[in-house]
Inverse folding.
């Protein structure tokens, strides 16, 4: 069966890569793009895409669903709209595959409940790169031996949310294995606000934003007389595409919300 895919965020850095990936995949059909402003009637009308990408662009999601009947909505947009978009997809019986980061815990819980009620698959993946999933898995293992840990995540300077979804997901996984722990000196004091990074159950997450970066993360463990660093680098956005294809296939066979590819790989 060919999977009918719609995409939100097609003009973006991740979206463009995903459009080409889906167009090349023989078991998928890209049926529509979802935008929030008038940019053209089809992807072919945009400079970013070849002339034969006759994929219609919609602004209204109900119309998109009515006209193109997608099975899956891939969301690669931004943290401000992603929750509403994902909810709207589920309400229209379209299975979301979401790469956009920036969900709150409450939003994740609500979407989990909605996916359950609708008996629909929904995949929210803070990171689609296999190496990043392994980094998180290894970090969860390592913390049993090295309970003092700090995370440094580094991204391009156009990223809107901080810490990154991967940074938060890594902290959550580590916290499952370790629990809360006060780190550093009990009397430490920041002379400049933010110097010690974000506090996640005692773990510190530092967010670096610079042009030239794509998506990188180090998980630093400190022990007695030794240090362990687990590092992952996405050097370009093709690193995420295997995970996008895998998620589109997987979401069709699922009837619950899955948060993080480590749960299904
Ligand atoms: P980007 O280049 O800024 O692309 C986002 C695109 O979405 C832009 O074209 C933007 O249009 C469009 N957009 C904004 N609001 C929209 C809406 N309501 N409906 C439809 N389209 C909308 O960002 P990116 O680097 O591609 O990243 C996109 C998201 O993926 C971010 O949240 C990022 O953190 C995440 N990400 C995830 C992974 C992963 O592995 N899960 C990897 C990398 C990035 P305008 O520019 O015209 O506003």
């Amino acid at each position: 069966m060919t999977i009918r895919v719609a995409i939100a965020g097609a003009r973006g850095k991740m979206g463009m890569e995903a459009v080409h990936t889906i167009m090349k995949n023989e078991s998928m059909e890209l049926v529509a793009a979802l935008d929030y402003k008038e940019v053209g009637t089809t992807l072919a009308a945009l400079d970013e895409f070849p002339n034969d990408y006759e994929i219609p662009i919609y602004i209204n999601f109900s119309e998109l669903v009515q006209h193109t009947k997608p099975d899956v909505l891939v969301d690669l947009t931004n943290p401000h709209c992603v929750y509403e978009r994902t909810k709207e997809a589920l309400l229209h019986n379209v299975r979301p595959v979401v790469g956009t980061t920036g969900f709150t815990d409450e939003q994740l819980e609500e979407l989990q409940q909605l996916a359950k009620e609708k008996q629909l698959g929904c995949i929210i993946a803070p990171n689609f790169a296999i190496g990043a999933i392994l980094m998180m898995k290894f970090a969860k293992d390592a913390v049993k031996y090295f309970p003092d840990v700090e995370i440094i995540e580094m991204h391009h300077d156009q990223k809107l949310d901080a810490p990154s979804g991967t940074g938060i997901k890594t902290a959550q996984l580590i916290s499952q294995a370790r629990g809360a722990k006060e780190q550093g000196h009990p009397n430490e004091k920041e002379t400049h606000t933010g110097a010690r990074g974000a506090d996640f159950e005692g773990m510190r997450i530092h967010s670096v934003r610079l042009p030239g970066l794509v998506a990188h993360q180090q998980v630093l463990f400190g022990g007695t007389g030794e240090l362990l660093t687990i590092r992952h680098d996405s050097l370009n956005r093709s690193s995420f595409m295997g995970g996008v294809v895998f998620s589109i296939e997987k979401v069709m066979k699922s009837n619950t919300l899955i948060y993080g590819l480590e749960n299904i790989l």
Notes: Residues 130-234 form a domain with the Dihydrodipicolinate Reductase; domain 2 fold (CATH 3.30.360.10). The longest helix spans residues 105-118.
